[in-house]
Amino acid sequence: xxxxxxxxxxxxxxxxxxxxxxxxxxxxxxxxxxxxxxxxxxxxxxxxxxxxxxxxxxxxxxxxxxxxxxxxxxxxxxxxxxxxxxxxxxxxxxxxxxxxxxxxxxxxxxxxxxxxxxxxxxxxxxxxxxxxxxxxxxxxxxxxxxxxxxxxxxxxxxxxxxxxxxxxxxxxxxxxxxxxxxxxxxxxxxxxxxxxxxxxxxxxxxxxxxxxxxxxxxxxxxxxxxxxxxxxxxxxxxxxxxxxxxxxxxxxxxxxxxxxxxxxxxxxxxxxxxxxxxxxxxxxxxxxxxxxxxxxxxxxxxxxxxxxxxxxxxxxxxxxxxxxxxxxxxxxxxxxxx
Length: 338
Ligand code: NAD
Prior knowledge:
By secondary structure, the protein is an alpha/beta fold. It contains eleven helices and twelve strands.
């Protein structure tokens, strides 16, 4: 029987619609060369919904997501005023228990990178830490935000990272600031050490977050899987993306026990809205990660190979890669390879 997957695509804000549409075109081209079916359903979410729905994540969209196998999420603008709806990504991660945020970063052919042989994955705890959303004003000019760290969430993400390390080069680095945040990062460190007992083959080391940001520039090729708490992982994975060339190439997966949401690492880059100028590869890579997570590994590899071929040829390059090609041109080139 032909396998079929129901995918919710959220186009988002700013450059979101163009990079999401590019990805859907690539997924549909891949589907034609494969034996599975994709049923792509579009949901509304993002800052552009707030005026009409008084929320950035309408109930209908949540229902649609509940009935789907996976979500392809375009970048969205998050208003920063106090009282504005919280980020859609943060809400979905908590609502669907998407506890592991997986951000692969590697050097690509013909893309300027700090070192030619970087191949690492940042695994970031995705549901708590400083992104718990517990923030308040104590008095005018004095605010607090709670950094909630639990043994349960830390163990789950550590276990996920060890499993990933087992499929890769069997090296895991955990990142913390245990010398200052003794209680919260003490819990995180203990949870990693507990998870480690089940993976004796994995070589383990650790770094303080400040040293890790420096090491990522000094010798990024040394790292395989890096696991850390929410805010540290957010910062570290953006840094890792830039170290390997461009935010326009970096994809992320948000994985839970039964659901996955896939998105580019970058945001909605509002100043480039509608210009057909940005690089859609980050979102296309997120689409490939989605197929891989769904079990369609051959199709996922087909997309990755097509992207690498296009980059290797170097004839079609978007602005972030030093060229002048439009987003639709690089998408066409990838589809032609598929
Ligand atoms: P951003 O990632 O949107 O843009 C920063 C810069 O990165 C851009 O100006 C551009 O130079 C470059 N860039 C981003 N995407 C690119 C692409 N595909 N190709 C080439 N270059 C690219 O970050 P920001 O300006 O800090 O945030 C803009 C908005 O996006 C904010 O509202 C923020 O909250 C939101 N955001 C959303 C997500 C998400 O939806 N998961 C993630 C990060 C930021």
